[in-house]
Amino acid sequence: MHKRALSVLACSAVMALSVTACGSGGSGGSGSAASAGTSGAASAAGKTITVWMMDGDLSTKATDAINAAFEQATGAKVKVQIQEWDSINTKISTALAQDNPPDVLEIGNTDVPLFAANGGLSDITADRADLSAGQTWLSGLADPATVDGKLYAVPLFAGNRAVIYNKTVWSKAGVTAPPTTLAEFTADLDKVKAADHAADFSPFYFPGQYWYGALQFVWDAGGQLATQSGGKWTGALESPAAQQGLQAWKAFENAYSSPASRNVDTTAPDQRALFAGGKAATILDTSLNTVLKDKPSLKGELGTFPFPSATAGRTQPVFLGGSDLAIATKSPNQALALAYLKAAASQTVQTGAIVGIDAWTPVSTQLIDSTKSSLPPTSAAFFEAAKTSVGTPATPGWATIESDKSINTFFADIATGRKTTAQAAKDFDAHLDQALNAAQ
């Protein structure tokens, strides 16, 4: 995802302890990881690879665990260079164009197509089975890293959103258990709404520009942001399924969130502060931690659950933020770099470090199932929600959509009624058509 969005999701890295970036690139040529393979990686004593990791994502202990697994498997050493977020995409582009790039780079999951598009990342498609080791990677991480059917990066970790609610407020309204379907959820929120008629109170505070959450309704109805055919992307929000999801989202937002929320994002005002201050009974967010920072006395009063689907037995698909690891095409150490990716995605490292140390969501559904029982229930809900995710369009143009905030305006147009869902979708689909194909 766009990098600074991780500053929000980074809070989920401590959630277990607190209760917690997109045409097809070059094939990698003769120096690609696929052609290099992993043979010889185990006899690399005396060699060193350079790895770029981003500041504030993995802890030193978690990074050390990846390095140790790699060094044990190969005999080679690792030089980790921590990178700042400011202007990182420009820095990565510059590094990949040079003859001495880092061997491995941490890249935001939705940003991977930016660098695959110009041939800067090695095609590792032939090694996918070995890298995944039978695991089913989370779609929200793997799909944006798969450009025109070719894999250019391996999932590293994820963060996502779940429903956070005040159990005391819900209980006073007669609701004592979390819902399992959307129908149950709205019925519960109706009770919460009936118990507090204050004009500035939201049974569920849901800002109109909060596209990460609003998209869940589109995906839950079977809609998509865009589709690809013959190498061309086409906005898909005018489809019947997407329209159904958009209408459901507007009805939900207008019914349960205050009128003042319809043209704002989550930060102004801060939805966590509103929740902590009693102006909302429920929010969709990445962490309990910041809520408790605002009001520590809420500890023990908060509950979490995945956002229920309109289809019984399912939860709404979520947008995953997080990072992938990729190999620079010009790296002279293709086999070793591939071995590093394998170590990072391994069950041992994911369980012991990604989850066990940093409490990030691991990269596969199997790993979620095997680790969530070790977490507090309030954290396990985030892991369970992450099992169903949808990736953003794997094209460099997606970066435009995130950076120009047109998607924020799109949903706010619907929430406020400035446009009908049909007109908003028609206008935004036209923008998607242009932006998603601009760098093809």
What does this structure look like?
It is a single chain. By secondary structure, the chain is of the alpha+beta class. The protein has 2 domains: 3-159 and 320-386, D-Maltodextrin-Binding Protein, domain 2; 162-317 and 394-437, 3-Layer(aba) Sandwich (D-Maltodextrin-Binding Protein, domain 2), CATH 3.40.190. Helix content is 41%, strand content 13%. The strands form 4 sheets. Strands 2-1-3-12-6 form a 5-stranded mixed β-sheet. Helix 4 packs antiparallel against helix 16 (347-355), helix 11 packs across helix 12 and helix 20 (406-416) runs antiparallel to helix 21 (421-437).
Under the CATH scheme, the architecture of the largest domain is: 3-Layer(aba) Sandwich
Report the principal-axis shape: globular
Instruction: Assign the CATH superfamily of the largest domain.
Output: Periplasmic binding protein-like II
Tell me, rounded to a whole number, the average pLDDT.
91
- Specify the CATH class of the largest domain: Alpha Beta
Helix content: 40-55%
The total of helices stands at 21
Count the strands? 12
What is the straight-line distance between the termini? Answer: 19 Å
Low-confidence stretches: 2-8, 10-32, 34-40
Beta-strand proportion:
5-15%
The radius of gyration is 22 Å
